[in-house]
Amino acid sequence: MSDKPIIVALDYDNKAEALQLIDKLDPNMCRLKVGKEMFTLFGPDLVNEIHNRGFDLFLDLKFHDIPNTVAKAVTAAAELGVWMTNVHASGGLAMMEAAQKALAPYGDKAPLLIAVTVLTSMSDDDLKLLGINVPAAEHVKRLASLTQQAGLHGIVCSAQEASMLKETFGKEFKLVTPGIRPAGADKGDQHRVMTPKEALLAGSDYLVIGRPITKAADPLAALKAIHDSLK
Ligand SMILES: O=c1ccn([C@@H]2O[C@H](COP(=O)(O)O)[C@@H](O)[C@H]2O)c(=O)[nH]1
Asked: Which residue owns the Cα nearest ligand 1 atom 6?
């Protein structure tokens, strides 16, 4: 487990509103994540504004393309100085190897590179519709194995798979888990969920938490409550 496991997912369409929340947060308490919506709207300027406020940033763009294109995309992320970025493991071994190799020149300044396995919004039935006739946990394990073979730092998965994955792939292989919901919170479109405390106990290294914080009447209080629940 990290000493700072909470990553707040900033999924806002309004930059001022996002910065209003960020300005109330302490970089010692959490890291931040910018995904497709905010990066498409506000681009590298937003990344720089977040870095200037002292936060580690996970740039969650889930690159999924041919090896050459993904290698160039992760290089661009490294140039932005982000702490973590990601690709889709289903892009394949050659793509992940190319992405990891592209980061070699950055040495210890390279972002952590992780791979998305099965989205936490997906169930076994959703996978069946894609022709994947094994339980989500089994498919996650298969993609995690490919990710480790490619030399990446870890994966995005559900906390429901965390204990099995830690046992199989070892404690250094980082598990980044969205689909985190405090007891009684609305699941929204998430399917494979767990509470923050249970996720940590199961072996998650980082908890990605969005709406339970950002849509709360008092986001700072919601974050503090989750933070305290982990002690
Ligand atoms: O499998 C995945 C991969 C990424 N995400 C992202 O995490 C956050 C979760 O937000 P909530 O509001 O807490 O549901 C969101 O930005 C997703 O893009 C994921 O949920 N599942």
From this structure: 178
